[in-house]
């Protein structure tokens, strides 16, 4: 009788997971029965990747962001150009995206244990969370059950991913188009407490803007020539204080006009987000809780569930029919 009851519970859980997915909702327990080893596999692979390259945590967090802003969180950013198929990797905002090979490795490790079960889109979401945690940031239960897109949009990648040159009103509009509030935007921007940016993305800010600390601008100018085309790919940390630690130092930087990107400093420049930036700069717990909530909200943008899309065998190509 006990065995029968246990089997019944498993059956009910499976039906619950199935109905949840088909209802368009995600759940952290989606793979509890079909691939219970999923999260340990992702965490182990991410740990090795970050030991090898400390920048990778920020890189995969950024990859998730860029995926969700184009067609939704569906893994479309991972698709390679092939024949007449044009993907999103060559879009201008994606030119410096890194970490595709880490997603490939996670996918291979997962497929070896749970073939044909876990989507590339869910792997990207988990990798973004684990990259944050492994650099000292908050953790959260990632809602799962996404399926992979069979399409991509180069034009939307070029138009919808917010540029580092945007002013506050344009940033609010860009995030609002994705259902994210100004507060969500300000919390998500805290991801810039880790990672690097290229000279061409912050040149205008350090040479032309007035809302930048002169000493900070001079520091960044040492590695970023004023002439366009010269040193464009030279790197600088988005957070000069703790570049490999996920904390609230990003907001403290903004308070003293040391945001690296024009779009960063726009969050604290006499506008509607100043008060929230000030709160985050002194309350790391508040920032962490708001960041987690905003990440979960962003992770629900345009998701494919149930019979929509597919589970790609190779994250770089659509399954052959």
Automatic annotation (TrEMBL):
<keyword id="KW-0106">Calcium</keyword>
<keyword id="KW-0560">Oxidoreductase</keyword>
<dbReference type="InterPro" id="IPR019794">
    <property type="entry name" value="Peroxidases_AS"/>
</dbReference>
<feature type="active site" description="Proton acceptor">
    <location>
        <position position="66"/>
    </location>
</feature>
<feature type="binding site">
    <location>
        <position position="67"/>
    </location>
    <ligand>
        <name>Ca(2+) 1</name>
    </ligand>
</feature>
<feature type="domain" description="Plant heme peroxidase family profile">
    <location>
        <begin position="25"/>
        <end position="319"/>
    </location>
</feature>
<feature type="binding site">
    <location>
        <position position="247"/>
    </location>
    <ligand>
        <name>Ca(2+) 2</name>
    </ligand>
</feature>
<dbReference type="GO" id="GO:0006979">
    <property type="term" value="P:response to oxidative stress"/>
</dbReference>
<feature type="binding site">
    <location>
        <position position="242"/>
    </location>
    <ligand>
        <name>Ca(2+) 2</name>
    </ligand>
</feature>
<keyword id="KW-0325">Glycoprotein</keyword>
<keyword id="KW-0479">Metal-binding</keyword>
<feature type="disulfide bond">
    <location>
        <begin position="35"/>
        <end position="114"/>
    </location>
</feature>
<dbReference type="InterPro" id="IPR002016">
    <property type="entry name" value="Haem_peroxidase"/>
</dbReference>
<keyword id="KW-0408">Iron</keyword>
<dbReference type="GO" id="GO:0004601">
    <property type="term" value="F:peroxidase activity"/>
</dbReference>
<dbReference type="GO" id="GO:0009505">
    <property type="term" value="C:plant-type cell wall"/>
</dbReference>
<keyword id="KW-0964">Secreted</keyword>
<dbReference type="InterPro" id="IPR019793">
    <property type="entry name" value="Peroxidases_heam-ligand_BS"/>
</dbReference>
<feature type="binding site">
    <location>
        <position position="88"/>
    </location>
    <ligand>
        <name>Ca(2+) 1</name>
    </ligand>
</feature>
<keyword id="KW-0732">Signal</keyword>
<dbReference type="InterPro" id="IPR000823">
    <property type="entry name" value="Peroxidase_pln"/>
</dbReference>
<dbReference type="GO" id="GO:0140825">
    <property type="term" value="F:lactoperoxidase activity"/>
</dbReference>
<feature type="binding site">
    <location>
        <position position="239"/>
    </location>
    <ligand>
        <name>Ca(2+) 2</name>
    </ligand>
</feature>
<dbReference type="InterPro" id="IPR010255">
    <property type="entry name" value="Haem_peroxidase_sf"/>
</dbReference>
<feature type="binding site">
    <location>
        <position position="193"/>
    </location>
    <ligand>
        <name>Ca(2+) 2</name>
    </ligand>
</feature>
<dbReference type="GO" id="GO:0042744">
    <property type="term" value="P:hydrogen peroxide catabolic process"/>
</dbReference>
<feature type="disulfide bond">
    <location>
        <begin position="199"/>
        <end position="224"/>
    </location>
</feature>
<feature type="binding site">
    <location>
        <position position="70"/>
    </location>
    <ligand>
        <name>Ca(2+) 1</name>
    </ligand>
</feature>
<dbReference type="GO" id="GO:0005576">
    <property type="term" value="C:extracellular region"/>
</dbReference>
<comment type="function">
    <text>Removal of H(2)O(2), oxidation of toxic reductants, biosynthesis and degradation of lignin, suberization, auxin catabolism, response to environmental stresses such as wounding, pathogen attack and oxidative stress. These functions might be dependent on each isozyme/isoform in each plant tissue.</text>
</comment>
<keyword id="KW-0376">Hydrogen peroxide</keyword>
<feature type="signal peptide">
    <location>
        <begin position="1"/>
        <end position="23"/>
    </location>
</feature>
<dbReference type="InterPro" id="IPR033905">
    <property type="entry name" value="Secretory_peroxidase"/>
</dbReference>
<comment type="similarity">
    <text>Belongs to the peroxidase family. Ascorbate peroxidase subfamily.</text>
</comment>
<keyword id="KW-0575">Peroxidase</keyword>
<dbReference type="GO" id="GO:0046872">
    <property type="term" value="F:metal ion binding"/>
</dbReference>
<protein>
    <recommendedName>
        <fullName>Peroxidase</fullName>
        <ecNumber>1.11.1.7</ecNumber>
    </recommendedName>
</protein>
<comment type="similarity">
    <text>Belongs to the peroxidase family. Classical plant (class III) peroxidase subfamily.</text>
</comment>
<keyword id="KW-1015">Disulfide bond</keyword>
<dbReference type="Pfam" id="PF00141">
    <property type="entry name" value="peroxidase"/>
</dbReference>
<feature type="binding site" description="axial binding residue">
    <location>
        <position position="192"/>
    </location>
    <ligand>
        <name>heme b</name>
    </ligand>
</feature>
<feature type="disulfide bond">
    <location>
        <begin position="120"/>
        <end position="315"/>
    </location>
</feature>
